[in-house]
Amino acid sequence: MGIVGMPEISSYWSKSKLYAGSYISSVMTREKFEILLRCIHFRDNSDVDDPLDPLFKVRPLVTAIRDCCQAVYKPGPMVVIDESMVPFRGRSKVRQYIPGKAHKYGFKLYKVCTPSGYTWNFKIHSGSQTKHQGLNSTESLTVELCEELLDMGATLYADNYYCSLTLAEYLLKKKTYLCGTLSSTRQYLPKEVTESKKKKNEMKGRENSNGVKVFKWRDKRNVLTISTVSEHSDQLVPSGKVNRCREEVFKPQSVMAYNKAKKGVDVFDQYTSYYSLLRKGKKWYRKLAFELLTGLTVVNAWVLHCQYFPRAKMSQLQFRVFIVFPHWRRA
């Protein structure tokens, strides 16, 4: 159904010449499919550990998929954190509205991905966030998602929604580095950097005693970045690109590193949009579960396949093994 799109689910069993010849009708009757779709559940409603959990109907499935994603693959030194939206306009306690997204209504997923698009860890937004000492809710969420990567020398790339001076200092104590864009309204930022006026291709930066660096670079607009990577400085370096006048383009190292790594979640969203299986429905848990089963796991399998076998074609058996068995390796 993701490959062959139809306006309605019943169209797959239509005898009209416009929809005739569907492979799905030869596999299963429409009545059987509708019964299975109506009765599908992912947890016994009478067996609930936490009745106040708004995601209790899909909690075992979410936990199993997350554990499998972390067991199959270990990310490298670069990871990126961002959010994705699962479109849903029905009634649900955890439905969000984000006007800047392509799908404005739906479930928000916080993800930790690799630059290649592999989702290593994720969390579904379901209300209040447990705070760490000295951190706000967003900073605590970032630490929770990357908890198993702390003290390993990894570099986390994030946008201005997650980045702050307090988070950068906390991660630096845990031997984890942070690089990303920064909002000028954050606390404890150096005013000589945030309030400075720069011309095009000018840059200014400051570093505090803890090793956190804040840069301001003027391109078409002001770009404020934060970094704890030792290699990043306030000097512009060649980016390997030229402008319309055939002149070499210079950019800050922090901006180039951020642009290179930040594409991870966008690559994932691009892959899932090609053959989406989602259909309109009133059951929120079914929409969320199908996105995880047919979107997240399939894209992760495809990313691993492209990484281990870049020139080989994946058979149907190999594809199933990638998804089902968490300890499958290249051998």
Describe it.
This protein is α+β, with helices and mostly antiparallel strands and 331 residues long. It has 3 domains: 1-39, no CATH class; 56-159 and 262-331, no CATH class; 177-256, no CATH class. It has 10 helices and 11 strands. It has helices at 23-27, 30-39, 59-72, 137-145, 165-173, 191-194, 253-261, 263-274, 284-308, 316-324; strands spanning 78-87, 96-97, 105-113, 119-124, 155-158, 177-181, 203-207, 213-218, 222-227, 236-242, 248-252. Strands 1, 2, 3, 4, 5, 6, 7, 8 and 9 form a 9-stranded mixed beta sheet that branches. It starts with 22 loop residues before the first helix and ends in a 7-residue tail after the last helix. Residues 320-331 have low confidence and may be disordered.
